[in-house]
Amino acid sequence: MAAFGSDLVAHVLLLETESGLVLVDSGYGLLDIADPAGRLGPNRRLVGPKLIESEAAVRQVAALGFEPGDVRHIVITHFDFDHIGGLADFPEAQVHVTVEEVEGAMRAPSRRERQRYRAAQWAHGPKLVEHARTGEAWRGFAAAQELTEIAPGLVLVPLPGHTRGHAAVAVDAGDRWLLHAGDAFYHHGEIDGSRVPRVLSFAQVAIGWDRQQVRDNHARLAELHGRGEADLEIINAHDRLLFEQARERSLN
Q: How many other CB atoms are there within 10 angstroms of residue 172's CB atom?
């Protein structure tokens, strides 16, 4: 998708577990594609997504030979419209999210949050499973919670800043841990020290619920990346380079 004048992706992860398929985020959905003005609102003009039906998660799941009902769980990093629009395409799935994110989006949103989130995207009544900020440390992040009710090796890592209840998701991929940092950072330059497009650097701080926490998260993730741990790969929701590198490594 073209966003903020840059070439970004908006991808989800699909995991096969003993309890069924699991999505990390759901991306844009079929209803978003059919009615972008009603579902996404005026902020869609800022983001400028290319809404292509064949790229919706439900269509890609079908292309792999599965049914929507095979997706039993969806773990959400946060409730921005480019991450939850596809929930309605998987109405039977349990949707795992932090308590704080539900508070900010659905139960007690501030004025800023009411302008940010799109209630139409959860009007179908998703089956929410709310997770409190409790648990053990994971790679230096406090209160990480292994989602054993879904599968071992799937960890919800609270990482507020971009939104009130934003979280990262860590996945044990066998040969390595994959840390999906959601929108904790937009561009790989925030963690590897390379040049970050100015528009993205500005946007992620301007949009952030807690701007100082956004900067702190960049520093924490950069420090983690800088350790060069062979069993850890960090990706996010929108960086094309990181997405392609992770995809190539998975295929190999």
A: 15
75 - beta bridge partners? 24, 96
Instruction: With beta carbons less than 8 A apart as the criterion, state whether 47 and 83 touch.
Output: no
pTM over 0.85: yes
What string of pLDDT tens digits covers the 252 residues of the chain?
A: 445 445 788 999 999 999 899 999 999 999 999 999 999 999 888 788 889 999 999 999 999 999 999 999 999 999 999 999 999 999 999 999 999 999 999 999 999 999 999 999 999 999 999 999 999 999 999 999 999 999 999 999 999 999 999 999 999 999 999 999 999 999 999 999 999 999 899 988 889 999 999 999 999 999 999 999 999 999 999 999 998 998 888 777
CATH number of the domain at 217, please. Answer: 3.60.15.10
Cβ neighbours, 10 Å, residue 10: 19
Work out how many domains the chain is built from and give that number: 1
* Residues of the domain holding 180: 2-251
